[in-house]
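Follow-up to my post from last week.
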Amino acid sequence: MADVNITVDGKKVTAPAGTLLIEACKSVGIEVPSFCYYPNLSLQGACRMCLVKVEKMPKLQTACTTVISEGMIAITDSDEVRQARKGMVELLLGNHPLDCPVCDAGGECELQDMTFSYGAAESKYMEPKNHKEEQQWSPVVYFDRPRCILCYRCVRVCGEGMDVWALGVQNRGVGSIIAPNKEDHLECEECGMCIDICPVGALTSGAYRYKTRPWEMNHVGTTCAHCADGCKTTLGVRRSETGMEIVRGDNRDKSGINGDFLCIKGRYAFDFANREDRFVQPLIRKDGQLAPSTWEEAFELIGKRFKEAREQHGGQAIGVVGSNRTTNEENYLLQKFARVVLQTNNIDHHRTADFPAFAAALRGKPESTASMRDVFNAPAILLIGNDPTEQHPLMAWQIRNNVRLHRAKLYVVNSRDIKLRRQATGFLRIPKGAEGRFAAFLNGDDSVAENLRPVAGTGADAGESRATTQTTPAGFRDQLRSEQNLIIIFGAEIRGGDIASVVKFGSGIAGAKFLYLADYANSRGAADMGLYPDLLPGYHPIADSGKFHQEWGGVPQTPGLTLPEMVDSARSGKLKALYVVGTNPVGRFDIDPFVFSQSFVVVQDMFLTETASLADVVLPAANAYEKSGTFTNTCGDLQLVKKAAEVSGSKSDFEMIVRIADAMGADVHKLVPFGRGTAADMGQSRGAQSGEADRHSVWLEAHGLEPKMSPFDPMAILDEIQRLVPGYEVSRMNLLAGNDQRTSLVGRASGAAQNPELIAPANDHLFSSGTLGRYSRTLNSVMENHDQQPAEF
Amino acid sequence: MRFSDQFETRFAEMITHYPTKRPVLVPTLLYAQDEAGYLSDEVIEEIAERLELTALDVRNVISYYSMLSTKPRGKYNVQVCTNIACMLRGGEELLEHCEKKLGIAHKGTTPDGQFSLEEVECIGACSWAPAVQVNYDFHENLTTEKMDRVLEGYAKKGAA
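User reply:
Got it. Predicted complex:
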């Protein structure tokens, strides 16, 4: 759009036509205060805090609803404007309690800040304040009516942003109140966005309220440990008896790929970390019982037994199961440890999507995967299968708000009436399990069109979607073909050869990009890092182990056993040892626990899962909030995982793997390339020159040159990942700054790891999250409240 | 939920007047209240569904307008104006008289379900103050005696 020139407080400002005055002011560093204005939400003009003088207009104007026009002259700081702001604050405080010291929002309250900046110390209003008791609207949302200043942000974010519409405004004038949709409680997705967006202490979080003060916590922005979307969550931590305790999760740091968004899991479901039944010391099975032991005893025993198994029966007698929730560095290290130290390719993980087939289908198209940010900006999106509202809340947010703010076209193909159909331009309901047939149909196979007709009686609910005409599969396909820069998002319903069909169809569309949905925080990372019996990191087939072979000094040349094959091998007594890191295959795949009675089983976990309960040695593991490293989300966005909390008595999986290798007598230097880099005087860490140490270390770390003094430093393995795994050559500087870095999927595999039957989608919904969800009290209480079956323990 | 044919005809016509469905909400609520006496949960659900709104949304609008009620009201809703003109000409005395006579207070309903009473703001009949509106009918230049006759008239009508 054409640019418009205006003058604000004597400063010349140029901004595109259509820009709001408040935004134009912001762009040159002039702050216009406001409560109700919130970027990307509809305009409200309710709080009147942003009143400014615009020349030639008789009265003060609200900067948040005034669109700039050529030659406009605005004044944001004059006696008149100051008087108006002061008056507004005075009115807002008319009924607002003046008990900041006991309010949950004290210290991070916008009204408090505004009163300091613009308000009056004295008030003309002597009337008694209206008081109402606090209400609990859900296990996680509380409402304190007198504190509400009626900015309607919560109403708009819930409706426009989340498409939930659970909050409204009732009555009018001074009697107006924010009301939940079920008279005295909420029936909603429990995302907590209303709490985060509330400028005051009216909406508070059941998980955090009245526990501490914002200035008493450290705030660590890290990547969420739950689903595969990779939201940035800010964890508020404070010292506790056992280390550092997480008290709050929220969205203070809006620099993440999720922007304003965070769902219930990122916000509240950190509580698994604080559970008292966590393992805090190693356990060794003695006389049939798991008994506490020391770390030394445990590592010594594991080292001895693993070494025995390898030397007496060979690497094929040992199995390793990795995790979807450990970091890239840990996953890479684990498979390297398996291949180099245990000398086995028997390594697998719980596969939730067919990434090897995806990588193979994208061969020669390294830049054709879409990032999470792309989903918010694409002009058109095709979604096949999955239900992002439940399984990928951020993905759903990106799609929904792209449609709302950019008028993107959304095409949905699903066997159910998923909620996103309400944003869809085209919705095609297909029979259950027909996603693969649809992929073939996209690719031109018209013979399957008949089989795509919806089952009688469950027809497409056209009334609720934006689709105006009944869509036929052929018409739907024609519409798709006419799109450009389409992002094709598909769930794990599409596997194996069907992925190639989808990619082939997309290749006929200019600028098309692809996005494959896996389920856990680092499912993509586990696949990228080679937790496969027949694939090395970066989807290198075992037969093509060239550079890994050179670097690691020998990789076993025969593909190893998949997880079900390991179970078979254990059943026949051939699997002598099993090493399970951060996963629960016995519970997840309902494996007969007696199968492993002949195997020496080592489990690294936080809780006594079905797998841990049959282990010979259990090592207490730290979770993703208690260690550093990187996660790759399902789109391939690489993000830093920062250590926020600590529970004494646990160790990171990284450290434990290294310690086991050491106990086996392996050369730890070869496993983790530490001890490289420079050693130098890094300057003063205290006093006048204290910043010097930081400047040295930031630059050195960004260039991978900081001294990695310890074999437990994940950054040493990140060096190797960046060197050897194609697609991971991203900017370290940006990564360390907390920005998402896009990796590319450079497929080399073909015909390998094509076992679509091994893919077991997690089928989590909004309130469940695999093992972590089972141990989250908040998620369980919300599920009970929604009359859903709480997770089994 | 069944509405009369007249309601359905009106509704079908109104809905064609606007590009979206929401604008017909307020008249629809009023007509529905005229038929059903008040806006029950059932009526709210029905209207929300017809206009593709949430029930919460419909309730929000109802709560804004004092003429719309979600609670049952008497057959005759006596609305006594006590705004400035009526007040100066005895509106408040008239309200007090009605309260005594009917034995109910503001927003109350008689046990037999015949009358409810409401104190309202200006009803636009200042020239003939004090004025009272019963359902859609106006009664003007009232005194307590005249008011008694008005109420008796409705009581008879209601008993018939």
